[in-house]
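Help! Submission page says 'invalid entity' but I think these are all valid:
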Amino acid sequence: MASSDMDGAFVEFDRVQKSYDGETLVVKDLNLAIGKGEFLTMLGPSGSGKTTCLMMLAGFETATHGEIRLGGREINNIPPHKRGIGMVFQNYALFPHMTVAENLSFPLEVRKMGKSERDAKVKRALDMVQMGAFGGRRPAQLSGGQQQRIALARALVFEAELVLMDEPLGALDKQLREHMQFEIKHIADNLGITVVYVTHDQTEALTMSDRVAVFEDGRIQQLDPPDVLYEEPKNSFVAQFIGENNTLMGKVTKMNGEVAEVTLDDGEVIDTIPVNVNAVGDRTLVSIRPERVEFNKERLHPDAHTIHAEVLEFIYMGDIYRTRLKVAGNDNFIVKTRNAPDQRRLQAGEKLEIGWRPQDCRALDA
Amino acid sequence: MSTVSGTGPGTADAPSPDDALHEAAALADRDTPPRHGAAPDGPVLAADGTPLKRSLARALRLQKTRALMLIAPLLIFVLISFIVPIAQMLWRSVENDIVSNTLPMTVPELAQWDASDGGLPPEPVFRAMYYDMFLAAEAKKHTRLGTRLNYEQTGISSLFRQSGRKLDDLGKDILKPLRALDGDWAQAAPWFELMSGADGAAKDTAALEAQRDRLRRVTESPLAGEIGFAPSSEISALLPLTAQAYTDFAIFTVLEDGKDLAKTKPWETVYPALIEDMQTADVAGYGGPRAGMLQALRAGIAEFPPPSYSAAFADIDADWAAPQVWQTIQTHARTVTPGYFLNAVDMQLTPDGAAAQPESKQILVKLFGRTLVMSLIIMGSCILLGYPIAYLLANLPMRTANVLLILVLLPFWTSLLVRTSAWKVMLQQQGVINDTLVWLGLVADESRLVMINNQFGTIVAMTHILLPFMILPMYSVMQTIPPSYVRAAKSLGATNWTTFWRVYFPQSVPGIGAGSILVFILAIGYYITPEIVGGTKGVFISNRIAYHISSSLNWGLAAALGTILLAVVLLLYWCYDKIVGIDNVKLG
Ligand SMILES: Nc1ncnc2c1ncn2[C@@H]1O[C@H](COP(=O)(O)OP(=O)(O)OP(=O)(O)O)[C@@H](O)[C@H]1O
Ligand SMILES: [Mg+2]
């Protein structure tokens, strides 16, 4: 993974703000440094300003305030066509009146490249996305996945060092999407290009990225590699946005260093890791991942905290079982267990004891 | 027979327009289980054993009939109000039965005449013409024929009008000595008795019906009904021409004028007919009523020379004694004529075939050319002016675009006449533009620009009037071009101009095409604006058509011009389809 310190950054947003209407800030104080060769994903709910950031980087929107730098050069006033940034659009934006090959040679033509050189590059780019045989077709004669590959090839054919992708896989079905995720990642790694990728889909973000920037309301809530993001969410928004999450409400009753004692709303006392609670008496939202909860006594960790629960619903999902429980007044508490030969299927109405390690239990802001 | 399962009627997985059909088929098969049998290697069978193809066809037919019934009223309306007038117009451009209908006896006689030696037609032609013309004059149809033939030879119209009035003279001249011979010849009743024959005598109804038919063609009225007269067979055989002339008179008098035959004096035509018949008739054996009158006439027939129809015509007007009129009638006697089309392209039908019109009459081809060129110029200026506006409309924020769109549509809410007249005010020599130019000192007061009543005026006014028809299709096409294409092009390194020219413009071409077709076709047939601001140099072919429809009343030529216009438009449309492809045209 590339370094992310500010000095070596390839792309930099420096206190960037953006407002469309002069009344509300769509992007609020964005600071982001992206290293060369990094695959960075912007993830966030709809309307959180991801596309806006991408458009500012591509040059189609101007930043209201702040500086955007590319390779150490400020690019705020450089028009889009001089930025040399490749871009893949959600609807692909392949020119319908040109063939695939013409689409690909378009960026080379405007760079006044010779015909033979152009043809060679187009061929190489098509081969790279395994579409070598489709050069003569029109975009309308291609399937969605094929169009997607062509769009990718077009963004790469002129050897841009930075490629932006705005929900490029949004229109594909699940299987194709997973396949393309893999392929995009693979190509990006091979070419060593820097990618800024926008998506709604958290799985996509987790599987492809070197780092993920979680956006909410025009701000980056957390910027971390996928594993850190998932396992150590810095606040309740990130915890709830990334992956599935059980939450229990309570109040901090004791703080001693690495451990905070939380009294849940129904009186149960549990140990947690304090993440962003500061003082005794704070309201807190305790987060536990469903797959870290255990009800099998033999597998329970010795330090585990146990608590009474009642099974409300058992759902068979193939590779996993998903059980909905009532725990500490929360009747939407999910437990996920692997479908293993020795795994027990819980019955609705069953009463049992469940437990988790205190390290898996994070006290976040309420 | 093995059963095979399959998606049959009613079990299609995705909804499609055909579902209704499947349902119909399923309904028809409701009382049988919804399964489909197929003979091992025969055709696929529907559940009730009929071949699937046939039961599908039945279901389809039902559906189609129902659909047809639904649109039938509209279809009939369109046929009647749209197709029929066009077909009629097309037909009118070649139809020419007025000559053969008005002169039914003359036309076959003339056909035998060989005009090439420069002489006059023989006497039978004149005779036939006399009786035809007389009847036409009574029916007041001779002037119409005169007008028709006047398109081909100037002066025929007045010739026919005058001749109609003077045709009586021949009969009157004969009547004078006839009356001296026997006063009864000038009376109504004796003629009636003579012609009808004795009570119970055999009647020549065939002759009556033949004449009735002929009169129908001339008068264009049904002429149905009983007239209480038919020439007696004896008279019809003895005095054929007279009987014929009298029958004409009888039918017309009873059915058109509603008079009593026994109390109305016959037309003057009966006298020359009588004299001609009597030259050879053998009345000795005649025993019918008024035999005495006939025998007395026969005895004194030496006093009455056979009538000379050609001399009578020469008396009426010297033009009848020249071959041209006869040639014209002969040339244009055919019922289907290419004459109007030849006229429409500055040619004419002469006795020797098609020939160019005299130089002074050649205007139509030039007018066609001018119409085409000016329509193209108007189309071009509409593209030039409309494209930026449509582009603005498609790319401005919604609210501004709506305001602009209202401005574009505003002219539609003003009367066409008002708009055209406004241009007249603007462009005339004492008008706003000239005044401004003079005031600015760009143009001297005494040399004000002439911008109206010429081609310039027509082009300016029509461009303005047709502009919305160019903008709207362009706009609707441009609206569908996603902005991401432009962004994609720019991100790929294209400058603004390259982006426009290589990416945006090609995708807006269907809009230009649609607008161009619309504007061009509207322009090529435009009438009011060129009429008002076009003067003499800026008028279109449609103004000429209007002239022939309402002033010269040469509807055949107008129809031919209209047909050619239609053909030109269709031809251009076809060319456009070949070159650009009509499926590339989007109207919205
Ligand atoms: N051209 C524009 N004019 C005005 N407001 C805009 C414009 N584009 C976006 N916005 C607003 O800016 C905010 C952020 O939009 P943006 O498109 O960046 O969201 P996003 O994170 O990409 O959302 P999504 O995931 O739905 O694509 C939204 O509230 C949107 O309404
Ligand atoms: Mg977006």
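Support: the input was valid. A stray whitespace character was the problem, and the output above is from the cleaned input. The pocket of adenosine-5'-triphosphate (ligand 1) is lined by residues A 20, 26, 44, 46-52, 200 (CB under 6 Å).
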